[in-house]
Write a structure and sequence with these properties.
- The chain contains eleven helices and no strands.
- By secondary structure, it is an all-alpha fold.
- It has one domain.
Length: 270
Amino acid sequence: MFLAVVGVMTISAQFQTASAQEQPEAATTEEVAPADEAAPAEEAVAEEETAADPFAAGQNDQPLHQQLKKLFIEGGAGFMATVLLCLIFGLAIAIERIITLSLAQTNTKKLLTKVEDALQNGGVEAAKDVCRNTRGPVASIFYQGLMNMDQGVEMAEKSIISYGSVQMGQLMNGMSWISLFIGIAPMLGFMGTVIGMIQAFDAIEVAGDISPTLVAGGMKVALITTVGGLVVAIILQIVYNYLVSKVDSITIDMEDASISLVDLLVKYSK
């Protein structure tokens, strides 16, 4: 995360430098434009169409990363960096959760078969070795139940239920941070909307007149920051729902396997 923060700060500085370099180029273009007054009628019509829809023209001429870079600068590199950080941190936690949950998945039917064979051939200690050598929360729950088997089946069942709750909490670890970034990202976008409106009204107050040019600048900042915050929230919300569904699937397997283990222990105790 620290490297991500440093990277975002570096990118923001580069964007600000690029925007400063693009301003002289725009001024040069404006100076050269009057020299082409004798252009043919077709070129004049094309220029009028471009002026009527400059955003579409920019989209056709510039690649996607250049358009995103332009929007990032126009929305305020410093302010948009905070929205980008929400996306980076949220995805970093999500990737860690995806890897952890993928490793937590276990073939419960195969594990139950191994535990049953171990109980029949080597007793509780052999079953413990099977669970100890198997990764995942299901194997950990089985091991805790077998650890208390010497105190009776009821005690083993209570241990399985208690430790199952602990494993469920570990599976949900970090999910609250993703929820936090999902809530913060659009809030930052709405804050940018308010800031853009304030800038627009300040410009109107200084100029003493309502001009579309003055209002457009502040409104553009407002819309860009709002879109950025909403896009980040949508991406993280999709990832969050995927993680929740994965946790639910693992939890169902844990509960089903725990019931089957208790049945095995009851059968073994007889």
